[in-house]
């Protein structure tokens, strides 16, 4: 080979490697931000048609991605719901079902998988149920728990500050992409007034600035929970949401000003929703009504293809991990579910409700199965008769009229089909459950248990 030919080959190699190094849109160089907001109902966001609670970030995600109109969490309280997002498994499969259980270490989580393929992982949590103790720190390079300050703390801007500090540190390095998970907590009870939004200004000062579970339970017991008070509760809940969204938008502005936004996919969702007085129910957990399991879900980023669509068929938030893997073109991963961008409308959505703390051996369990416009609920609570409910979902509020006993032929057909699917799903889960070893127990001392109970986790 002549010297000239050798030089040509050498130059070619240099050029190829330079192109490779500058390949900014290589799937593996895409940053991922997962924002989860505790206790956030989809129907209390402006992006879903609500009168309040606008957000710059959510508008950006709508304009550069997808708004999922019918997204369902796999559970109605934090620990099982977030574990499903992190593992892609249903609650009975991962086993983090009660306040004394955690993510089993044998299960690979989303951050662990991302770490394996070269991501730098940062996690920020303000909530005990998604803390190191419950297995959520697995796979993170940085895991910040300094914002765990209890149910009366206001901490959304503190969380944004911690996240901003981390982003400012890494904005200049482009050696490896990052995964940032941030959990916001303020919409969770206790609801605290943020007078700058003034949603609740029309109410007199006899109502408390902090709405606690104790106060609501007391009002219920004394039969003093008037329509006016219920409206006040909703207004203060909305103030908490607006406050949280403002803190999230502050982070969004940083992503824009640092240009990190250019190469980042953002996923926005909630762990579960909240009862706000429907059928005299408040808070969350145990049940699987739509108020509790229907959550916001938006995925967007400039790196996604320009095609914008509004997804109306039902999707499960446990599919987030698989969707991320598909976006990054990672074929070998353990995550289950459906790609959220799939246009396959024949999907069903399954959720499970459990009570966080319960002394009985026979635990509460409720199941929800959604297919097309139909929803079947199966409730199995100790000392109560098990029962089914069948609903046709025709608005965002969910269940209106129980059709389970209706004799109409079409409804009988739907009931049969849904019962068959539910039965199949429960058999599938009980088979898989046996495979997970009993490696997920955590010990809580009586003081800690008492504190968690006092926060309302048993007061549903
Ligand atoms: Zn939660």
Explain what the structure shows.
- With 460 residues, the protein is of the alpha/beta class.
- The chain has one domain: Alkaline Phosphatase, subunit A.
- The protein contains 12 helices and 19 strands.
- An 8-stranded mixed beta sheet has the order 5-4-6-1-9-13-2-14, sandwiched between helices. A 4-stranded antiparallel beta sheet has the order 16-17-18-19, with helices on one face.
- A hairpin with a 5-residue loop joins β10 and β11.
- α6 packs parallel to α8.
- The longest helix has 31 residues.
- About 4% of the residues have low confidence.
Assign the CATH architecture. 3-Layer(aba) Sandwich
Quaternary class: single chain
Count of distinct structural domains: 1
Query: What composes the largest sheet?
Result: 8 strands, mixed
Secondary-structure content class: alpha/beta
Q: Indicate the mean pLDDT.
A: 87
Low-confidence stretches: 9-26
Percentage beta strand: 15-25%
CATH-assigned fold name: Alkaline Phosphatase, subunit A
Task: Give the ligands present.
Answer: zinc ion
Distance from N terminus to C terminus (CA atoms, Å) equals 81 Å
| Gyration radius from CA atoms, angstroms | 23 Å
Question: What are the main properties of this structure?
Answer:
460 residues, alpha/beta, Alkaline Phosphatase, subunit A, eight-stranded mixed sheet, four-stranded antiparallel sheet, 19 strands, globular, binds zinc ion
Walk me through the topology.
Blueprint: H1 3-21, E1 31-37, H2 56-63, E2 65-68, E3 71-72, H3 78-87, H4 91-94, H5 110-116, E4 120-124, E5 142-144, H6 156-170, E6 178-184, E7 191-192, E8 210-211, H7 213-221, H8 227-257, E9 264-270, E10 275-276, E11 282-283, H9 290-293, E12 294-295, E13 297-300, E14 309-311, E15 315-316, H10 320-327, E16 348-353, E17 365-371, E18 374-380, E19 387-392, H11 409-433, H12 446-457
Parallel strand pairs: 1-6, 1-9, 2-14, 3-15, 4-5, 4-6
Antiparallel strand pairs: 2-13, 3-12, 7-8, 9-13, 10-11, 16-17, 17-18, 18-19
Helix pairs in contact: 6-8
The structure holds zinc ion.
